[in-house]
Amino acid sequence: MKIYWIENKTKKGPISVPELISRVQMGELTVDTLGWHAGCEKWMPLRELPALADCLHELAAHTKGESTPPPGGALPPLPPIPPAPAPVHIQLNIPANGVAFPGDPIEPAPIWARLTARLVDYTLYATLVMAIMYALRVPFNEYLIPSAPTFWLPMLFVEAILLNTFSTTPGKKLMGISISTIGEGNSLTFGRAFARSFSVMVLGMGCFLFPFNIIMMLVAYFMLRRRGITLWDARALTMPIRRVNSGAGGMITAALTLVIGVHLIGFFMQPWVPSMLDRISSDSPQLAEKLQKYMKLPHADKN
């Protein structure tokens, strides 16, 4: 998404969303500066632009700079709607403890890379937790299975610690992704990282509750396509960035991790299968019978 703005009654731009937010934070522009992007019918304050409304909500009371031109002043003509832009290489605040990008250009992390990274992180977390419960012989509990929201709650703290310490996670590291902050002087504190992780779980994954998880993932996807930033990144003033020259090795490793992780999770859940089938059969005997045949388990003796 490209943004244009008016400065000294002159049209300026285009500029990317993260870069414009940074300028507002540094006081070069204000939330009342007139701006425009594709889809708007007229110049309007930056805080009212659809692509920036969420991003600038927290900054509205803390910026200074050029105010909106007085009414009646001649405004420059609207810029033509630009063609679909090529990937934008931007330089954001990469913390000293973040992922190093030695000489590589960077770009906002594409959707497929972000999704792959999160799937890898979820798989690694689920595999580790199930391995621990398997080793401790924890009895079956419906709140401890991967489909329960309570199963994923500890991951909020794990992810927040990793982001606060390294600005990345194992899955993001494989995909060459680091979480950068927007604006001068910002840092990814533990509280900020935890709030971001919590927002991802609620607004991005629907707390893993079907069908809300599907709905929220679709909403997040279309918002990212339309605005170039997710709601949780807009609130936390963060931006996932990625090395442009990331090799195929990370993707291959991620694919292997997903395949092996899913098989290990299934193996570690084997002691729970009888209890799970008993629970399912009480609600749906037909479904339990189908699962029993699918998993090639012996039938109980009915005589």
Core attributes:
single chain; 303 residues; Dna Ligase, domain 1; 2 domains; four-stranded antiparallel beta sheet; 10 helices; 7 strands; 45% helix
Could you explain how this protein is built, in words?
The protein has 303 residues and is of the alpha+beta class. It folds into 2 domains: 1-70, Dna Ligase, domain 1 (2-Layer Sandwich); 106-268, no CATH class. It has helices spanning 17-25, 111-136, 149-166, 170-174, 190-204, 212-227, 231-236, 249-268, 273-283, 285-294, and strands spanning 2-7, 10-16, 34-36, 44-45, 106-108, 177-181, 238-243. The strands form 2 sheets. It has a 4-stranded antiparallel β-sheet. A 3-stranded antiparallel β-sheet has the order 5-7-6. Strand 1 (2-7) and strand 2 (10-16) form a beta hairpin. Helix 2 (111-136) packs parallel to helix 8 and helix 3 packs antiparallel against helix 5. It starts with a strand and ends in a 9-residue tail after the last helix.
Mean pLDDT: 78
Order of H and E elements: EEHEEEHHHEHHHEHHH
What is the strand arrangement across the widest sheet?
A: 2-1-3-4
Question: Would you tell me the structural class of the helices and strands?
Answer: alpha+beta
Number of strands: 7
Described by its quaternary structure, the protein is: single chain
Instruction: Summarize the biggest pleated sheet.
Output: 4 strands, antiparallel
What share of the residues lie within helices?
40-55%
Q: What Rg, in angstroms, do the CA atoms define?
A: 24 Å
> What does the overall shape look like?
elongated
Low-confidence stretches: 61-67, 84-91
Number of helices: 10
What is the domain tally?
2
Please give the alpha-carbon distance between the first and last residues. 68 Å
Residue fraction in strands: 5-15%
